[in-house]
Design goal:
101 residues, alpha+beta, 38% helix
Length: 101
């Protein structure tokens, strides 16, 4: 899963104008967080990601969790999407380790 998808507009840059509530609301909606959480993170000096990728982790044929990669670049993850197949060796390495847990 990639956010934003190629067909979607970029996530808004909420740091450009932290008082712009419409940007905050759009970012919160599209990233499934609350505006309050987003404001709190910004107040702590964090820089919200502008793009995300998520990969499922399967252990013993069951969903175990998700690996999330983020980027401050608006199109950083879309550039990485070309490397999607490159992540499968990591999944193959993680799965046997998690099966022992």
């Amino acid at each position: 899963m990639f956010v934003p998808k190629k067909s979607e507009p970029q996530l808004p840059d909420v740091l450009a104008n932290p008082d712009d509530m419409s940007r905050m609301m759009e970012y919160a909606k599209r990233t499934i967080v609350t505006v309050e959480w987003l404001k709190h993170e910004i107040d702590k000096g964090k820089h919200p990601a502008r793009s995300f990728a998520a990969f499922r982790v399967i252990v013993n044929d069951e969903p175990w969790g998700v690996i999330v990669i983020d980027s401050r670049e608006p199109d950083g993850i879309l550039q990485m999407s070309r490397l999607n197949g490159k992540f499968s060796p990591y999944g193959k390495a993680i799965t046997p380790l998690l099966e022992r847990v």
